[in-house]
């Protein structure tokens, strides 16, 4: 069998950096990226013949675990009817109805192929609907690689320590106002200064691309209030959190929750990852009045050759159907067990840290125990150097973590006792490695 090293050497002659998405290159942790050849349940297997308990879960989609039998069966059945029709199919409405049944603010949904397309379209739609130009985003929030949202964008930019991307024009950058996360006063001030020019505020429902950050009490509700006071839209980016942290995403845990103190609903939601169950599908949805501004009903153009692809729709329908309350309860429970064990192991070695949580998502930040990570400045000020030795120790013990401290850890309903025990057994040595970094 060809080894990961040989495969990486070859890939580098064929693709920039040998990868098709930057964080996969192990840039911030060093070493040879593992080339994966199989994924089943809680495990990944690499080309070197080793297996790993997977804490990346395809960066979110594998909520049920990899290759869940219901999802595979649905995909096989769909494939038998053809791969792509270039015309409408019944499965698109089936998936849209499942989303609508879970997220009441979604009166209309448009399927696209990636999270980037979903946020890009949401931004264009907000501009078309309001007739305004400016967009507010928060430093450290990642919404995909559309030009206008690449400033201080977290995720791979945080990993590579890039302030933004080359190739984005100054004119485009000038149409985005970047504000500190968790700071409603900064949002109020921006609206006081430019209120009649702001089309939308876009925010991750709970940030998970600068590591995980918990939205402060009332932060998302405050954004909803301020935008509606000024005739702007709130775009809630649930590409990562949607259908992962709960049946109705992070919004369902907070704004949409009957037990929440403040109920609020964004004008537009964006979804990705879990909605396609591992195949390339994403979506935007929201109020009919806004969504109907999209072509063919309205003047805002958007289209896609593979949008609503029947195989991807089948994977999404099977995934959301199988994602019952017990799946979310299992993932919540595993998340709590693991984050508790993680804190225990790091504390035993005297490693200053905070575990950052939002629903079942969490991440670790080093040197941040004093007040945790509230925003991108806090995230960047942490002791990043402790992560690489921690990561490699875990990898050597057969646990595949995100290869960057700025990414969330993902669990699935397939993480059983055996998988969890492997992680627990690996933690003490990794904590030691972090301590001595
Ligand atoms: N929004 C958020 C919150 C994300 O986490 C991501 C990807 N990690 C995206 C948008 C972009 O999605 P995609 O990678 O499918 O383009």
TrEMBL record:
It holds the Pfam family Aminotran_3. Pathway: Porphyrin-containing compound metabolism; protoporphyrin-IX biosynthesis; 5-aminolevulinate from L-glutamyl-tRNA(Glu): step 2/2. Its EC number is 5.4.3.8. The modification N6-(pyridoxal phosphate)lysine is found at residue 273. It comes from the Bacteria. It is an enzyme of class 5 (isomerase). Keywords: Cytoplasm, Isomerase, Porphyrin biosynthesis, Pyridoxal phosphate. It catalyses: (S)-4-amino-5-oxopentanoate = 5-aminolevulinate. GO terms for molecular function: glutamate-1-semialdehyde 2,1-aminomutase activity; pyridoxal phosphate binding; transaminase activity. SUPFAM superfamilies: PLP-dependent transferases. It is found in: Cytoplasm. Homodimer. Belongs to the class-III pyridoxal-phosphate-dependent aminotransferase family. HemL subfamily. This is Glutamate-1-semialdehyde 2,1-aminomutase. The lineage of its organism: Bacteria, Bacillati, Actinomycetota, Actinomycetes, Micrococcales.
């Amino acid at each position: 069998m060809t080894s990961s090293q040989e495969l990486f050497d070859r890939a580098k002659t064929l693709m920039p950096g040998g990868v098709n998405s930057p964080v996969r290159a192990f840039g911030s942790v060093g070493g040879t990226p593992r080339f994966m050849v199989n994924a089943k349940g809680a495990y990944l297997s690499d080309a070197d013949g080793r297996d790993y308990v997977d804490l990346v879960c395809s960066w979110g989609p594998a909520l049920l675990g990899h290759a869940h039998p219901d999802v595979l069966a649905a995909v096989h059945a769909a494939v038998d009817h053809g791969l792509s029709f270039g015309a409408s199919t019944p499965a698109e409405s089936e998936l849209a109805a499942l989303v609508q049944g879970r997220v009441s603010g979604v009166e209309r949904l448009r399927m696209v192929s990636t999270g980037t397309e979903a946020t890009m379209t949401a931004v264009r739609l907000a501009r078309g609907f309001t007739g305004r130009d400016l967009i507010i985003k928060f430093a450290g929030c990642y919404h995909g690689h559309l030009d206008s949202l690449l400033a201080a964008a977290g995720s791979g930019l945080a990993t590579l320590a890039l302030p933004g991307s080359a190739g984005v024009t100054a004119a485009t950058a000038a149409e985005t106002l970047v504000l500190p996360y968790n700071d409603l006063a900064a949002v109020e001030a921006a609206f006081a200064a430019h209120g009649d020019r702001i089309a939308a505020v876009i925010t991750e429902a709970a940030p998970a691309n600068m590591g995980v950050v918990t939205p402060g009490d009332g932060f998302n509700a405050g954004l909803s209030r301020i935008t509606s006071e000024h005739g702007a839209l709130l775009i809630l980016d649930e590409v990562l959190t949607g259908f992962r942290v709960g049946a109705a995403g992070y919004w369902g845990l907070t704004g949409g929750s009957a037990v929440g103190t403040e109920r609020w609903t964004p004008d537009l939601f964006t979804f990705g990852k879990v909605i396609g169950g591992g195949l390339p599908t994403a979506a935007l949805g929201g109020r009919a009045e806004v969504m109907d501004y999209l072509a063919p009903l309205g003047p805002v153009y958007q289209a896609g050759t593979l949008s609503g692809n029947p195989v991807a729709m089948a994977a999404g329908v099977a995934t959301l159907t199988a994602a019952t309350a017990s799946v979310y309860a299992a993932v919540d429970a595993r998340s709590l067990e693991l984050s508790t064990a993680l804190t225990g192991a790091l504390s035993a070695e005297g490693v200053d840290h905070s575990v950052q949580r939002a629903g079942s998502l969490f991440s670790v930040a080093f040197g941040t125990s004093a007040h945790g990570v509230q925003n991108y400045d806090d995230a960047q000020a942490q002791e990043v150097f402790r992560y690489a030795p921690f990561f490699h120790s875990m990898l050597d013990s057969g646990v595949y973590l995100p290869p960057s401290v700025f990414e969330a850890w993902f669990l699935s309903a397939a993480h059983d006792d055996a998988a969890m025990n492997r992680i627990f057994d690996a933690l003490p040595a990794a904590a030691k490695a972090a301590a001595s970094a």
